[in-house]
Amino acid sequence: MRGTVPGLASPHPLGETLPALYAEDSFAQRLCQGLDEVLAPLLSTLDCLPAYLDPATAPADLVEWLAGWVGVAIAPGMPEKRRRQLVAAAARLYVWRGTLSAIRTIVELSSGQTPEIRESGGTSWSQDPKAPLPGRPEPGLVVRVRTAGPDIDEARLAALIDAFVPAHIPWRLELLPDETRSWWEHPPGPDRE
Questions:
Q1: How many C-beta atoms lie closer than 10 Å to residue 127's C-beta?
Q2: Coil, strand or helix: which one is 100?
Q3: Most buried among 24, 44, 81, 181, using CB within 10 Å?
Q4: Domain membership flag for residue 1
Q5: For the whole model, what pTM was predicted?
Q6: 26 and 71 part of one domain
Q7: DSSP class of residue 58?
Q8: What is the number of structural domains in the chain?
Q9: Contact, 115 vs 144, CB < 8 A?
């Protein structure tokens, strides 16, 4: 329940559900009217529950709560439109965990920047059994994000990326502002699943 709403009528007044004996009892009817005023916002919330659970229509203060449901960390200064997009896309993106498109999308939604992603792997096809293998033998991933200021929360972005990178792949995040560079390195380990 989000709070009382003055003048909100209950769609199911309690006084009408009392036995006929209490239909003319003014005390019972006033007591039920007082309870109706308290229960009306609750009933209204329950009637509109799908709208509260949809990131596109949920009140702004509930979007962060919904983000916790889908395991997404939202930066405090993130614009509301991007917050809603990130929460809406998160559950769908978990299906694509470990893919470059999911990592790229989650970085774009959380930072507002298109990342440059370099990976060590690759695929190819050849009829020659001695053809060189693509990529590098050691696995690795680098996510580079260019930003003009300190508007990206590195720890939150790193936590989001960590949820989408395969557990056995060491990776690093490079934030490339105008003059400085920050590195977040994450080797594979038993604590990553």
A1: 5
A2: helix
A3: 44
A4: no
A5: 0.63
A6: no
A7: S
A8: 2
A9: yes
